[in-house]
Structures are given as structure tokens and as C-alpha cells.
Amino acid sequence: MEKIQTIISKEWAEVFKNRLVLFSVAFLPLVFIAVPVVTVVAAGSLEGAAMEEFGGEGIPGAETLCQGMNAAECGEVFMLNIYSLMFMILPVAIPVTIAAYSIVGEKTTRSLEPLLATPITTSELLAGKALAAIIPAVVATWVSYLIYVALMRYLASAAAFRHLLDPLWLIAIFIVGPLLTLLAVSVATMISARVSDPRVAEQLSMVVIVPLILAIVGQSTGLFLFDRQLILIAAVVVALLDAVLLVLTVQAFQRETILTRWK
Amino acid sequence: MIQTENLTKRFDEQVAVESLTLEIAAGEVFGFLGPNGAGKTTTVRMLTCLIAPSAGRAVVAGCRLGEEDREIRRNVGILTETPGLYERLSAERNLVIFAHLYEVEDVAGQVEKYLRMLGLWSRRQDPAGTFSKGMKQKLAIARSLLHEPRLLFLDEPTAGLDPEASRLVRDFVTELKEQGRTIFLTTHNLDEAERLCDRIGVINTHLLVVDTPAELRRQLFGRQVVFHLGNDPDGFLSMVQEMSAVRHAQTRDNKLVLALEDPEADNPEIVRRLAAAGAEIQFVGELKHSLEDVYLQLVQTE
Lengths: 263, 302
Known about the structure:
Mean pLDDT of chain A: 81
Strand content of chain A: under 5%
Distance between the termini of chain A: 30 Å
Distance between the termini of chain B: 29 Å
Number of strands of chain A: 0
Strand order of the largest sheet of chain B: 6-7-8-3-9-10
Shape of chain A: elongated
Strand content of chain B: 25-35%
Radius of gyration of chain B: 24 Å
Number of helices of chain B: 11
Low-confidence stretches of chain B: none
Number of helices of chain A: 14
Structural class of chain A: mainly alpha
Low-confidence stretches of chain A: none
Oligomer: heterodimer
Helix content of chain A: over 70%
Order of helices and strands of chain B: EEEHEEHEHHHEHEHEEHEHEEHEH
Order of helices and strands of chain A: HHHHHHHHHHHHHH
Shape of chain B: elongated
Largest sheet of chain B: 6 strands, mixed
């Protein structure tokens, strides 16, 4: 356990000295908090009729989403639904940047060989590296989501705020989020084994975000609406993918392979 | 300290090291020479458990390779071909990380000891990336010693260093030798190998030869004595060739070059006979072959 802690603290000390990584970890959550705040405040300043027009007719799936709400509340719920879903991007985007720099960085500085020559086991090393990427991503997601919810308590209508407390979003952020983080780290680790530039690793690993963007598009166009059942199915699918990818990542992360084939 | 028996490493069809059988005693400085791609680094990586051998056996620092790898890693230190430092982190932080990974008990004490010993204490808070090549190499050496290994692998420790930094590193290796540590040194610098090593092994995928530098010279070239003459040496060539002590004789410019079994015993008689035959002997000396001559002879005749 001490060795895992050493790896984590080493990764953080090194990775967070990289401005690009620091920027993505700090800046993305701020953006994801700021956008809903600005939108909700702006929506609140709209004339009642305009908001009702948007909430009354322009909402895909309004009949399911807005039962017992007026048109303005329905509009807010619709917006917050999309913003909440956008928070699911954070647990993917943040660890990809950290993992890509952490693993490819070791390759470019050739620091893996002395590291692997110590009595650390491969699983300790892998766990340290993975946790160093997972922990900041999960913490940043949870903290920024809690800040977002707290702000909405004062800025959004009571009906819209109640909707944010739906178990659907709690499962999404607090369970599916970490599972997505693990998925992103596994993908980033495997891609990092094949490339020698952290930026390339980061960009390729970002492919994990594509299904999330499609989900946001689907939600905003009314193609489908996220409900508890759908989010639970997503949790199971991502967990299964995690299990498979974890096995593949551990197989790819063999000392000899790293030293002789990671070019 | 190291025993290997038919240690072999193949990468797919490519044989990197073939049937390496070697024994290195405790306290010995062993030089491992060979051309690029000869298998030096692969051997070091096998013996430090970084890669697994394809065949053969080895005992390193009293532990069986492939069975007690973690224990081997605890007991050996390695200076890799490139320093591989965390360049954004301070020198001290670099060492603290490795002290923890090597399970060092007194982390702060050991880090301070080696930073001071290698003259890096005043720069301990500076990022390793700001160091010169020589300083980086010294920091990497410090890292390899934190857990006080009795066996140290140094993979080309002076490669790419300027003469001053090379000398500092060599002096430090000498100091480590005096402390009784066993050192396995790979190098392309033959002068360095000659100065530092008790024995030398030359590898070109398979081990060509192992011995002391002096014995290698003797085996390959015998002992050669040069007689500088004031008159034409060709006139004396047939006479010396007939002498039983002379294994081989040739002339070069105004010199007679004779290969002898025992120059100390044979020289007086040769001098007497040459003088009696009218040779004007100006100077007599032993022809010294450099380790480079030995190395090139071995590798080129492979």
C-alpha cells in the first residue's frame, strides 16, 4: 500500500506541474459549473411568455419529463437535464489527460526502467498510476456537481431543483461516473502503450467521450430520455466493459513488454 | 555474487544473448564489453529481473532468477543507460520516491547522505531537469545506491559525459569498489574498463572471453619486446628466429619485434647474441597492447 501511495504522490507531483493537465483538471469543472449558472440566470431574466413558449412547445419528451410542471419549470428541467448529463464528460476527460501524460511521460523521459527495477509489483505500479488519474477525476466531478446542485438550489425553480435530486442523477454521477473514469483510464493506458506523444494518446483516448456526446444529443433532441432504468443499464454495461478492459490492460502492462516494445 | 549458466534471451527469432555462463565474485568489478547490439543491456536487464531469460539459470546476490525476483530487486542497484529522472521534480524528491520504493528505513538520512556524497546537496531543491548531464548521472547513481545494494549494475555510466564529469563518475566507482561492493559495468570506454575492472568479459551475443586485462593481452598477443637498432634489423632477423626462446620475430622500420615467453629470462641472452653479431642496440622495451587492441582483435575475428 505504501508503494501505491508513493506512486500516486509521485504522479500528482509530476503531472500537476504540467500546465496543460492542471488546466484541464481545474478549468473543465469551472466551465461545467459556469455554463448552467449563466443559462439559468439568463433564462430567469426572460419575459415569462418567452420562457413559457420555449417550455411549452420546444421541449422534446415534455409529457414524460414535465408532469405537474408549468411551461417555465419544464424549460428549466430540460436544461438542467442536459447540463447534468454534461457532468458525465468530466470523469472521462480529466483522467484521460492525466493518464496519457503519466504513462507516455514515463516513456519519453525513460524513467520506467529504473522504476521497474525497484521491488514494486506490476499490480502496485498499475494501481498507483490508475488511482492517480481516477481520484482527481472523481473528486473533481463530485465536487463540481455538488457545487452545481447547491447553486441551482438558489437559482433554479423548486420543481427543477427537486428534479436534480432524483436518484437517476445521483446514480449517474456517483456510480456511473467512477465506472466511466475507470473505462477512460484503461483505454488511455492501452493507447499510451502504442504511442509516444502524450497529446496523441490524449486525443485518441478521447474517443471514449463520443458515446457521451451522442447521449447528450439524443437527450436534447428527444431521441431518448434518460430515466432510472436506462442509467442502471448503462452502469451495468460500463461495469462489464471495465472488467474486460482491466484484464486487457493488466495483460498489456507487462514489464518486458513495456521495456522492449513500448517505443 | 553472480552465477549464470547458459543464460539465453531470444526476442521472437532474434537471439540477443546466447548461452551466457559467467561467475562474478563478491567485491569484484567486472567489465562487460561488446559492440552495439551485442547483448550487454539485455544481460543487465535479465540479471536485474527486468526481463525474463528464455533459457538458462542464474543466481544473483544469492537469489534464484525467476523465483526470487523481488528479493533480487531489493538487493541490487541499477544505473540504467539513460538517467531516467523525473525532470520536473527536485533532486531530493526524485530520491525520496525511490527510497520509499526500495523500502529504505531512514529515507531522509539516506537521501541526505548520497546527495552530500555526490555533491548535490546545495542543489537538492532544484528540478532535475535543470541539471547538467553529469549532475543527472550523479543523481541517478545516488538513486541506485539509496538501499545500499552490495551488487551494482552500471550500464554505460560515463556515456555522453564530458571528461571532467566522466572522471567524477569513475572516481566514485573506485570509491564504491573500495567499499567492497560488487560492480557489473558495461561500457564502450575501454580505457575506463582497464582502469576500473578486475576482470573483463567480451560479448558478441555469446560470451567470447573472460579474464583480467593483462591476461587477455598475454593470451592474444603474448609478450612482445622491441629492440631499437642503430643499423638495419633485417640482417639479424634470421639469427633471432633460430633462437628457441623466440616464438615469433619481425622487423618494423629500425626495430626488431620479438614475441617471447619469458622476456625477463630471455632478454639478456638475446642482447648478448645481437651485440656479438654487430647489432647497435639503442633501446629495449616491452610492446604494450592496449585493451582496445585486445577488444578489436576479439570482436573482428569473430
